[in-house]
């Protein structure tokens, strides 16, 4: 009752803007913390990252007004005397100042593989958050490959990201998006569709083209909606022939000049003399093959990591093609990362290589409970069905022991309740196949209780009541009486299911407050399990209350025998408890994740989350909200074709 009363409270409409700004401030704090950690991983933990340059390109169709060039980081004025002649011109706009001069605020960031597009997006996010004032939109990075463009509008896609990655309720996320307090930074348009075997973009990229069309029509308050999009240059050029993002400025990240590359490697080195043959070669041959190959931040970071503690960097002077250089560096990257970041479990480079190779069979984003097909779809499903059958059988045994009505009717009622609980479609949103309750925002408990009580609760109630009526009523009662009895018994035995579920969801989703913190991948599984446990405990609690009320009503009539009272209480209590047991066990993401781990023994560590977190610290993977990603697509592709170290 208290939850329902609190849920009825509505915030005044005039305060909605102030509330949304408060939520945006909380969101900015979480984004700054999480993306700052990813940014430090991508730049190799260096305090002086490469200051990438970018230039404005002729756009496809109608373009936005923007400055001609910019730099990733602010440039000191005057430049330091020791600055190498690379050409950091004074007065060039940094990334945040550049963005503020783009009109309308739509930016497409392009570059070759490893050019630093994600680093650009992260630097823009952190720069805007550093100088953010109240009312400014909060930039959030979203892997655009997660977007189901066929059935999800762009605004809904952004809302779901806020819900899945930062714990917002549906109403909160909708308020942030509708009031323009979120700036979507969409990373990896070129990752939406498969490429050709040689890595070139496919001529027909349906998902990417659909995304471009939706972004082109995206509006905010009647104007072109602000958005930042990253994509490889070749992929964008291939898309531009059929789909283009109008009213956007396109910038291309320039290659790293040889002097800057040499300065970066020298600054990262603990023994500069060991690096001199390589840096001297790059500076002496600024147009040579090696200088061109080492003109991307990704390869520079690989080189600095591989030769950080030993080896001869001068060996790279023999690499004349991309394939040779990438093979040379990537083959040594995992052993180097393992040495630089030892783990108490003593992960060996061969183990790490095999484990990561096994994970390349998943999609770009590694969502924990979506990894189960890697263990074999048939195998996991068979074990899943076996566990579900055991749960239903256990519930039937408990019901048979508790109820004196006989095995036949108990089995029917129990199976009906269990199957309904397992198979009923609850009104929930699916975000990367994580089930997020749709009820949220200002009145989550009331919404959850209403939806659950009138949909899934009545479904379960009908099956339970109908089965009970069939086995309890005399065979000659007739169909109308049987249906009426089923309806009445359904209300008695089934409504506690829906009400208990609704109250538990309301308590779990909160009453419109700010999100607790950024959602980490393993926390989503934990939260889902806690929600199911809360529902499992709440349902019997509500059922006990209903049973006590029913017992109180019967006291006004003829006295009941002890056997009748026990039978009545058991009939009212056992189905809710059966539902609680089955709901907690059946279709739970945590259960399927555990089955996946059991089926992956020998191919993945059982403490998979510990390994994945370590891989992020070691720079092999990176966090992407509620998922993990490989540090770079080149690493994932190389591991795919090299299953053995």
First-last Cα distance: 61 Å
Poorly predicted parts: 1-14, 79-88, 423-450, 508-513
Report the count of strand segments.
14
Number of helices: 24
Task: Work out the helicity level.
Answer: 55-70%
Report the major sheet: 7 strands, mixed
Class per helix and strand makeup: alpha/beta
Radius of gyration: 30 Å
Overall mean pLDDT score? 76
Beta content comes to 5-15%
Q: Rough shape?
A: globular
**Biggest sheet, spatial arrangement of strands:** 2-1-9-3-8-5-4
What does this 3D model show about the protein?
The chain is α/β, with parallel strands linked by helices. The chain has 24 helices and 14 strands. The strands form 4 sheets. The protein has a 7-stranded mixed sheet with strand order 2-1-9-3-8-5-4. It has a 3-stranded antiparallel sheet with strand order 10-14-13. Strands 6-7 form a two-stranded antiparallel sheet. A hairpin with a 2-residue loop joins strand 6 and strand 7. Helix 9 runs antiparallel to helix 10 and helix 17 packs antiparallel against helix 19. The longest helix is centred in the last third of the chain and has 34 residues. The termini are far apart. The N terminus is likely disordered.
């Amino acid at each position: 009752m208290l939850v329902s009363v609190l849920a009825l409270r509505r915030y005044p409409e005039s305060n909605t803007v102030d509330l949304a700004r408060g939520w945006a401030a909380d969101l900015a704090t979480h984004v700054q913390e999480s993306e700052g950690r990813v940014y430090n991983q991508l730049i190799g933990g260096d305090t002086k990252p490469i200051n990438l340059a970018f230039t404005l390109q002729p756009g496809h169709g109608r373009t936005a007004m923007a400055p001609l060039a910019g730099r990733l980081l602010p440039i000191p004025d005057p430049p330091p005397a020791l600055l190498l002649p690379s050409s950091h011109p004074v007065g060039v706009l940094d990334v945040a100042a550049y963005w503020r001069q783009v009109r309308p605020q739509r930016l497409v960031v392009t570059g070759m593989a490893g050019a630093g597009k994600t680093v650009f997006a992260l630097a823009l996010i952190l720069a805007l958050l550093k100088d953010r004032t109240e009312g400014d939109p909060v930039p959030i990075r979203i892997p655009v490959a997660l977007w189901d463009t066929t059935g999800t509008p762009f605004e809904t896609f952004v809302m779901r990201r806020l819900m899945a990655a930062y714990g917002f309720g549906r109403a909160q996320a909708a308020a942030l998006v509708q009031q323009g307090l979120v700036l979507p930074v969409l990373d990896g348009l070129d990752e939406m569709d498969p490429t050709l075997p040689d890595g070139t973009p496919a001529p027909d990229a349906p998902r990417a083209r659909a995304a471009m069309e939706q972004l082109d029509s995206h509006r905010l308050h009647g104007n072109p909606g602000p958005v930042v999009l990253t994509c490889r240059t070749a992929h964008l050029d291939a898309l531009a022939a059929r789909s283009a993002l109008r009213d956007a400025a396109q910038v291309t990240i320039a290659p790293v000049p040889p002097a800057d590359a040499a300065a970066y490697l020298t600054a990262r080195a603990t023994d500069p003399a060991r690096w001199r043959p390589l840096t001297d070669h790059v500076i002496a041959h600024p147009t040579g093959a090696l200088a061109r190959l080492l003109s991307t931040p990704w390869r520079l970071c690989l080189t600095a990591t591989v030769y950080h503690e030993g080896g001869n960097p001068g060996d790279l002077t023999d690499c004349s093609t991309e394939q040779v250089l990438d093979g040379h560096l990537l083959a040594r990257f995992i052993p180097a990362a393992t040495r630089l970041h030892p783990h108490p479990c003593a992960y060996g480079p061969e183990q790490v290589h095999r484990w990561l190779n096994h994970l390349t069979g998943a999609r770009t984003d590694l969502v924990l409970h979506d990894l189960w097909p890697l263990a074999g779809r048939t195998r996991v499903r068979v074990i899943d069905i076996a566990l579900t059958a055991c749960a239903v059988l256990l519930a039937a045994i408990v019901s048979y022991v508790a109820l004196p009505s006989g095995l036949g009717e108990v089995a029917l009622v129990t199976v009906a309740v269990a199957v309904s609980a397992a198979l009923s479609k609850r009104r929930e949103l699916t975000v990367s196949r994580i089930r997020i309750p749709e009820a949220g925002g200002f009145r989550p408990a009331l919404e959850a209780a209403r939806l659950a009580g009138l949909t899934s609760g009545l479904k379960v109630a009908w099956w339970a009541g109908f089965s009970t009526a069939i086995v309890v009523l005399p065979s000659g009662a007739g169909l109308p009486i049987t249906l009426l009895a089923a309806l009445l018994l359904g209300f008695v035995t089934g409504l506690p299911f829906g009400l208990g579920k609704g109250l538990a969801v309301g308590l779990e989703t909160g009453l419109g407050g700010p999100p607790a913190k950024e959602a980490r991948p393993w926390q989503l599984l934990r939260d889902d399990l806690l929600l199911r446990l809360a529902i499992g405990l709440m349902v019997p609690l509500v059922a006990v209350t209903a049973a006590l009320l029913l017992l109180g009503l019967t006291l006004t009539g003829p006295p009941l025998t002890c056997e009748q009272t026990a039978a009545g209480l058991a009939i009212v209590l056992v189905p809710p408890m059966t539902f609680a047991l089955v709901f907690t066990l059946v279709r739970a993401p945590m259960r399927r994740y555990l089955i996946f781990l059991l089926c992956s023994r020998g191919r993945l560590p059982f403490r998979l989350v510990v390994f994945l977190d370590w891989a992020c610290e070691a720079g092999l993977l990176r966090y992407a909200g509620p998922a993990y990603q490989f540090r770079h697509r080149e690493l994932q592709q190389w591991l795919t074709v090299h299953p053995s170290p």
